[in-house]
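Recall that a protein's primary structure is simply its ordered list of amino acids. Everything else, from secondary elements to tertiary packing, is in principle encoded there. The following example makes that idea concrete.
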Amino acid sequence: MSETRIRAAERRDLARITEIYNYYVLNTPVTFDVEAYSVERREAWFAQFSVTGRHRLLVAEEDGVVMGYAGTTRFRPKAAYETTVETTIYCAQEAAGKGIGRRLYAELFEMLKGEDIHRFVAGYALPNAASEALHRRFGFKVVGVFSENGRKFGKYWDVCWTERAG
């Protein structure tokens, strides 16, 4: 049985992180990106993370292979939003149902306990029972639903927004 190791993401993980994300871009409405990313196009996104501070990125690794990632990013660029971060989490398809997302979030929130974060926010396209359950498990409360907020695959999708205290 493989052991899952949670650790800070490193530049060498970016190709696998991009591969995991691109699956969702091309096959699902859970992200509203509509074109796959190259590793080079994901460089700027990756550069926002640090091993300290509010904006972190963790990976879950099994047998040397990244199986998922979770992180926190800036919510909005205005200074008053500084202590609000948006969470992101994606797991490889072969990791579904293995509890990797739960482990990633648990470690992420534990690592961020000492940071100056007042609110965590998360948005997810509906329907998405797995994301809904994961966020509820970690204390996120629904604050609203934007109806038909994004168009992908010729259909409009609602987005549920949630928050929890930091």
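The chain has a mean pLDDT of 97. DSSP finds four helices and seven strands in the chain.
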